[in-house]
Amino acid sequence: MGSAPTPGSAERKARMEQMRRAERARERRNRILTTAASVVVVAGLVVGGVVLVDSQSGSKASAASGSKDSAGGPKGSAGGSKGSAKSAKDSGHFVTGKDGVRVWTGRLTRNHVTTNVPYPMHPPVGGDHNPVWLNCNGDVYTEPVRDENAVHSLEHGAVWVTYSSKASKADVAALAAKVRKTPYTLMSPYENQASPIMLTAWGHQLSVQSAGDPGVDRFLAAYVQGEQTPEPGASCTGGTMR
Q1: Domain of residue 4, residue span
Q2: Is residue 241 classed exposed, middle or buried when 0-12, 13-18 and 19+ CB atoms within 10 A define those classes?
Q3: Is residue 234 part of a domain?
């Protein structure tokens, strides 16, 4: 006949069973955490791999696009250079109005330069010019002047009257008298021009055969400090006189 368990033995068994249950619960919790961590790691590796593949594909595409552009593609630097060169050559042309005034359609740049400028028309109607303007307060020059200084005067709203050797002495004298009485005008001989007498403002030009042509007065009235002036009110004195 067996002996009955002692109270101390029963408590010990109960405590051991409780510890075993706690250990099993801890093991289950660790397994769950380990599994979850593994899933996160795997997911991270998958996402990282996809990003890396996309990045490499993008780099290859960019390199291929760059190579294509450099070879003269539609968006490459070579294509851009061609476009700039075309723009530089396609500087514009004259359009003649009903009043005989020719208007330049191209863009007239206004940079200050100290070198000679290859103007596409003569006399020039605008463009880059010398930093010093030619005095244009009714000034009459008997010798040719520099285009680059005269263009600066046009920028200030002056009208430049020029004449070639084909103009008569009487016409030259009549024009000189008119210019001397008109602020923001200047006059000089200019052999390399198509007509005996020409009047030039910024972006505008008129050719006439004689000083008595009514277009002379109309041009002066319209373009001396006219709406075409890039710098209205700028000085016509204090510049150069040659």
Answers
A1: 1-90
A2: exposed
A3: no
